[in-house]
Amino acid sequence: MHSSTLTQASLIDDIDIHIEGDGSETIIMIHGWPDTHELWDAQVDVLKDKYKCIRFTLPSFDLAGPRRTHTIDEITALIKSIIERHCPNNKAVLLLHDWGCLFGYEFSNKYPDMVSKMIGVDIGDPESMKENASFTDWCMFVFYQMTLVLAWLLGRLGGDWLTRMMAKALGCPTPSEHIWANMNYPYFMFWFGGSQAYRKRLNSFNPQCPFLFIYGTQKPLMFHHQAWADDLGAQNANKTIGLKCGHWVMVDQVEEFNEVLVEWLELPKQ
Question: Distance between CA 211 and CA 108 in Å, rounded?
Answer without folding.
Answer: 11
